[in-house]
Design goal:
By secondary structure, this protein is an alpha/beta fold. The chain is built from 12 helices and 10 strands.
């Protein structure tokens, strides 16, 4: 199965950079000289340490600081849910979020059912992929095999937990099927989940070990990739459940697959892809919105050296954040650059 990304990952590295080069007039890294510099510092909420959000976000913050001469700080967080709440409170100015979590927050659904949150978008940046990871020697071959097992579903305020809960419910391993024992979920961050998965694979009686982990991340997610050098791992095919979820939540999920080359797997593994948005708090200054977006495109080659997912940014699809509106300065940036 082909992997639809912002366009298609097989072309993303070339087209993302090519679109930026074609549509953005070459010049100094600061861009248009008549765009004022930000008046004060900014904070970007990222994600779990060693995850793509944290690596990408820290790299973007460094480059934006370099370009503007005004400090942008990268803040590690539990992920999308915490980031969205930080935007709403104003404790972050810019943040990454999975599209499904952002849509829930914007519409006041799911974990955000107590009220709608309001924010704007700067760009659709890249896609996350749901990883259901088990040790190579594990007998688990499908989602039903997780019944009664201990599974990490991500931190409590993460976008991973949002999609993991939906997958577990759709697979009816949440206690709704009397024939299947419910999954025993724990809320580890990525580093701890990888550590506890390896620990139990090596010693079944280890305290706090887990049988599987569910993670939503970019490709590759390095802490997961490194497991191939220790216990080895497989990714569980969730194609049937992924298709049902994608049909139910239009706009938040894309039926896709993880190619074997990413993690040295035997074959492609069907899963869910989830677009990632870079979002802005209500009232974010035009200068911060403009310079952040300008840096993402004009310094894309530098961002790709920090993490390859930066190559997925494409000028023509970055505007696809509906129903979340683009920040006015972001809209102006895209119009100015003929997109």
């Amino acid at each position: 199965m082909d992997r639809p990304r912002l366009l298609n990952r097989r072309h993303a590295l070339g087209l993302g950079a090519a679109a930026a080069a074609t549509l953005i007039t070459p010049g100094c890294s600061r861009g248009k000289s008549n765009e004022p510099a930000p008046a004060g510092p900014a904070r970007i909420a990222t994600g779990n340490l060693d995850g793509v959000y944290a690596i990408y976000g820290a790299g973007l913050a460094k480059l934006v600081t370099e370009v503007t001469g005004v400090k942008m700080d990268a803040i590690p967080t539990e992920g999308s849910v915490q980031n969205l709440r930080m935007l709403d409170r104003g404790s972050a100015d810019i943040a990454f979020s999975l599209s499904d979590s952002a849509l829930d927050a914007f519409e006041g659904k799911g974990i955000f059912s107590t009220g709608n949150l309001r924010f704007t978008a700067l760009a659709r940046a890249y896609d996350n992929y749901v990883h259901v990871v088990v040790p190579t020697a594990s007998p688990i071959s499908n989602l039903a095999g997780l019944a009664g097992k201990v599974v990490s579903v991500g931190p409590k305020q993460s976008g991973t937990k949002v999609v993991a809960d939906r997958i577990i419910a759709e697979a009816k391993i949440d206690g709704s099927n009397p024939k299947l024992k419910p999954v025993k979920t724990v809320n580890y961050n990525l580093a701890t989940a990888v550590e506890m998965l390896a620990a139990k694979a090596e010693n079944p009686n280890v305290k706090n070990g887990i049988d599987a982990l569910i993670w939503s991340g970019g490709l590759p997610t390095d802490p997961i990739k490194k497991l191939q050098n220790t216990i080895g791992f497989r990714l569980v095919d969730i194609g049937d459940v992924a298709e049902k979820i994608a049909l139910k939540r239009f706009g938040g999920y894309i039926l896709s697959s993880i190619p074997p080359s990413v993690y040295s797997l035997a074959s492609a593994v069907p899963t869910l892809a989830i677009p990632n948005y870079l979002l802005a708090k209500r009232g974010l200054s035009d200068s911060w919105a403009w310079w952040t977006l300008n840096t993402m495109f004009r310094r894309q080659a530098d961002l790709m050296k920090i993490h390859p997912e930066a190559g997925s940014l494409d000028a023509r699809s970055a505007i696809a954040t509906m129903p979340i509106p683009l920040h006015p300065a972001a809209e102006r940036w895209y119009r100015t650059n003929h997109i």
